[in-house]
# Entry
Amino acid sequence: MKATRPLPGDVVADDLDQPFWDACRDHRFLVQRCARCGLFYWPASCCTVHGSADMAWVEASGRGQIHTYAVIHQSYRRTFLDVPYNVAVVRLDEGPLFHTSIMDCDQVEVGLRVQVAFVDYESFTLPLFRPSQTP
Amino acid sequence: MSLLDGSIVGLGMTKQGRRLGLSGRILRRQALELALEDAGVSRSDIDGYILVGSGFEDLRYLGLSPRFSYSLQSGGASPGLAVLNAIGAIATGQATYVACVYGEAFTSSVSGVEPHSGRPPEPPDIGGGAYGYPYLFGQIGPISAYAHAAQRHMSTFGTTSEHLGAVAVSEREYGCVRPGALEEGNPITLADHQRSRIVTEPFRLLDCCRSTDGGVAVIVTSQDRAADCKAPAVDVLGIGTGHNVRKWHEGTMYEDRDVAVAASTAFGQAGISVADIDVAELYAPFSFAVIDQLEDYGFCPKGDGGAFVAAGQTKLSGAIPTNTGGGHLSGFYATGFTPLSEAILQLRGAAPSSQVPNATIALVSGTGGNGGITGSSAHITLVLGASA
# Structure
């Protein structure tokens, strides 16, 4: 699919998160983990206790539940013209919150179990989520 | 005696409205001159300057010679943070009179000098509204962050669109009688709110403020100097700060905006409790932000904010008159200066409409900035008092 939307490099000034976006191309969902305390973060982060020293990307379940969401009806200028669409915040099972859109879902609601669904564009892969097939 | 030694002795407000056609620095100059006149302070007395906004100020054009000048940008928290910094500068001997000045022309294309090379460059698609990774999924501007908090509240506590509408109606009641307000003479009903189109669910058009042009300036000095100024002083009794990036790290950012720590610091310095507050001026560019702040400041229990507003408690006759100039929704949008300026007017007993009788303690809030993820904002609480 050709991207008619902003690319990851448009919104972040450096390559700290490149491993995440590379893994998305392989349909693997990564989060960061502090090896000292085991807490998970997303995206590239410093542990609030232990700093950056022992942070590493690790593969995550790609599962979580909808924490909250909004449905955008307003169309802005040149991108995202296909309204309405949703922007949800998913609480990953590992802990971090993750902004995404929920696809293949008639009724987006808080608490719904979801799993990652990778959508391939020409130059990158976007991690959307869809309702879980298994609880 | 409060820990703080600061008074607001000058308030300058230009016309606030859509498409005024004046540039930011012209609006700032107008606001500054009105504030100087109000305070009875001369230009040469201003020895500290804080630009509430981004970039460098044109001190040359303003005719100012301060000992320091800097810009301060944390969105809607900036005006309160400017007052905090002004008091700090005064306390450490850096200044005696600090001007905190705002002026923006969000809705105007301003005429420039000729000749000119041509059209301005094409702006980026949504400019500063991109807000990082959430933009990849179409999250644009601050509205979605407020919508996320609102939806979480609705799912948790059963808050309804009608509750949001009650905020819009309350603010419109104040705004439609306020001379110069954006919605002066234009009342609405709850049915009007429910009929207005959805912008970003759960928000309808009447849940959202509109950008306006305008300038606001305040002059801050010590309490002893305030006694010699022309305008009635408004004393800063307490200031508190919080930042909900902490809540992001904890995974609870959509549950509140870290109001508790800011409120407890400010109330503690002022030696007050929530029951002592006569009027609340809350930073709320979207209706929902009134509901959660009324709860988090303790005017009603958590989860009851919608019903509290629907019961009329934010009106002049209610438990806590709130956003008495119409707020952002029906008054004007001058970031955190909308609530701050209205609190000053109320405490002077000089509100052009909807004056709260004998208002002596006012709560002012501000929220804004971005801690690296959309919705992670600074929050500031000011407790202001009418000078005795």
Q: What stands out?
A: The longest strand of chain A covers residues 63-72.
